[in-house]
Design a protein that fits this description.
The structure is a single chain. Helix 6 crosses helix 14 and helix 7 packs antiparallel against helix 11. The chain has a 9-stranded mixed beta sheet with strand order 15-23-22-16-17-21-18-20-19, sandwiched between helices. A 5-stranded mixed beta sheet has the order 3-2-1-4-5, sandwiched between helices. The protein has a 5-stranded mixed beta sheet with strand order 8-7-6-13-14, sandwiched between helices. It is globular. By secondary structure, the protein is of the alpha/beta class. It is built from 21 helices and 23 strands. The longest helix is centred in the middle third of the chain and has 29 residues.
């Protein structure tokens, strides 16, 4: 049975292919279109998934989309009757639902000459989120929680996962949303673009929670562990907020009411204005408020279900700072976080709902696929890379670069590790592209974590991003407890732990201002070459980690060798590794 799962008409549109209960391919549309967070129907990702598996659209038995316009409609109707939002807002919502309803026609148009035979399943947005964590975890049972912006008129959902089944027992409905709260603060302190919330997370450690009282005016935690927004500060529920979401990078208009917010916090920061300590304190206070509400939910859910396993998903589950405190601030003992907890993950989640929950009408497999790595995207073979290097020979020579092919992986890793110890910046491209927003050692830029100036070097040579944003450590799994205060498996770089106090001075480039690091644990069995590279670096330095950031320059992470070479040539990277090929500037 072949199931094509989609996140469509949401930010970070994506496709995933599940064959006989196993994930065989998955990728975000932005990697092909080269537009960050691209939203719409992910036709290029769909085409790649099918081609990678040697299939055509007509071979697909089922298509699952992580949106169901038919759910929660009574709630929608009652809300309209009670609140009487603007006519423009109502018409926009209806238009979005109708657009999702014309999905089959859009798919057929994208594949001319290839007949659509698949049955289409519309999976509730939050069920897809929950499934993207639980149904690919190794848990027999777990508490399942999705915390998000909005999808299908809800912002959060929770329940219990057992075997191949997830039962949703509760939801928080529109207009109350922790995702909207965090987006409002993101906009208010001058980060206006879709997906900028991670900047607030990076800025927060530079501040103090001086505005926590004001944040509690915005978000009110309830006695039952849920939360409500104080809607007098928000616009999204009554006004026609500008939002573009089809065939583009999503754009979101101002979500807050300026006058009440400025009465609470003072003047908003305009885009590009200087960052003041006040803005750092607001960021820190917003993070503290999010954690207060988040951990109240976790405490309540653990008390209700009495299960120590947590499967966490939704856009807010990208908050790696809060994730890293789950074991410290809740009774949960084990947690599974998917490689893509946000909307893109709904492609995998919706596919597995259909494949495993009997929705497709086929026998359900007794053993589940466990997603313990994210290397399921496009790859390049040696012939493709050689053809590219031959075609770009003049450009490479013009940059004073030399090219060699290394058949011996040990020598390739030794030379690369040595270059890292010399302070060089490495573009590292190998194997299949990672699924999700994090670079995990296959489309990464690497550096020396021991160098205090490495952050500045990377920002000067390549990244050109805000100085307050941290860089992450990729650490050998077997050495985590030696370097961090917590010991857990973090294969998808989705948690922030405190670096041990006696180790921080050794790795200043990957230790944030508050002593923390957003780590990726690297396993020999899931990424042997990357593990071997870090082990070589450890043998040279005694440090079992390297600095890892995404292979890009203000663009989506590179997908192809050509994109990697283009990024290398237009920046000041020192070394580029393309599978077995090494280009040295």
């Amino acid at each position: 049975m072949i199931v094509l799962g989609l996140n469509a008409y949401h930010g970070d549109s994506a496709a995933a292919l599940v064959k006989d209960g196993r994930l065989v391919a998955a990728a975000e549309e932005e990697r092909f279109r080269r537009i960050k967070h691209w939203s719409g129907l992910p036709t290029e990702a769909m085409k790649w998934c099918l081609a990678d598996a040697g299939l055509q659209l007509g071979d697909v038995d089922h298509i699952a989309i992580n949106r169901n316009p038919k759910v929660n409609n009574l709630r929608r109707a009652l809300y309209v009757l009670r609140k009487r939002p603007s006519l423009g807002l109502i018409l926009k919502r209806l238009g979005n639902i109708r657009h999702a309803g014309s999905f089959e026609d859009a798919v057929q148009t994208a594949f001319p000459g290839d007949k659509l035979h698949a049955k289409v399943h519309r999976v509730e947005h939050h069920l897809a989120h929950l499934a993207s964590a639980f149904l690919v975890s190794d848990f027999d049972e777990a508490v399942c929680l999705s915390v998000d912006g909005f999808g299908d008129f809800a912002s959060s959902a929770w329940g219990m996962g057992k075997g191949n089944d997830i039962q949703i027992d509760g939801r928080i409905f529109f207009p109350h949303s922790l995702g909207i709260f965090y987006s409002v603060i993101t906009q208010f302190i001058g980060f206006p673009y879709f997906g900028d919330e991670y900047k607030v997370m990076g800025l927060a450690p530079y501040g103090e929670p001086k505005y926590l009282k004001e944040m509690r005016e915005l978000v009110q935690v309830q006695s039952d562990g849920t939360f409500r927004l104080n809607l007098k500060y928000f616009r999204h529920h009554t006004e026609d907020v500008h939002y573009t979401w089809d065939n583009c990078c999503p754009e979101v208009g101002t979500l807050y009411k300026q006058a009440p917010m400025e009465a609470l916090f003072g003047p908003q920061r305009e885009k590009g204005a200087a960052l003041e300590q006040k803005h750092r304190d607001i960021a820190r206070s917003a993070q503290a408020m999010y954690e207060e509400a988040f951990f109240a939910m976790l405490q309540t859910l653990h008390a209700r279900y009495r299960c120590d396993n947590l499967a966490l998903s939704g856009g807010c589950a990208m908050n790696s700072v809060a994730n890293g405190k789950v074991y410290l601030n809740s009774p949960f003992k084990r947690m599974y976080l998917p490689a893509s907890a946000g909307d893109a993950g709904g492609a995998i989640g919706s596919a597995f709902v259909v494949a495993l929950q009997g929705t497709a009408g086929a026998p359900v497999r007794s053993s589940r696929f466990v997603m313990d790595h994210a290397y399921v995207g496009p790859q390049a073979n040696d012939a493709e890379i050689k053809t590219l290097l031959d075609a770009r020979h003049a450009d490479i020579v013009a940059e004073n670069c030399t090219v060699c092919r290394l058949d011996d992986e040990a020598e390739l890793c030794r030379l690369t590790a040595t270059a890292i110890t010399e302070g060089k910046v490495i573009g590292w491209f190998q194997g299949r592209m990672e699924w999700g927003p994090r670079a995990l050692g296959n489309r990464s830029i690497l550096g020396d974590p021991r160098r205090a100036d490495m952050k500045d070097i990377l920002n000067l040579k390549i990244k050109r991003r805000e100085s307050f944003r941290p860089f992450a450590p990729s650490i050998l799994r077997e050495h985590v407890s030696e370097w961090f205060e917590q010991d857990d498996d973090v294969p998808f770089m989705m948690e922030v732990f405190q670096v041990r106090a006696d180790k921080r001075a050794q790795i200043p480039a990957t230790t944030h201002v508050d002593g923390s690091g957003r780590l990726q644990t690297v396993h020999q069995d899931t990424n042997p070459r990357y593990h071997r590279l870090i082990e070589n670096y450890r043998q040279l330095t005694g440090v079992p980690m390297v600095l890892n950031t995404s292979f890009n320059e203000n663009e989506p992470v590179v997908c192809t060798p050509q994109q990697a070479l283009d990024c290398f040539l237009r920046t000041k990277m020192d070394v580029l590794v393309l599978n077995d090929w090494m280009i040295v500037r």
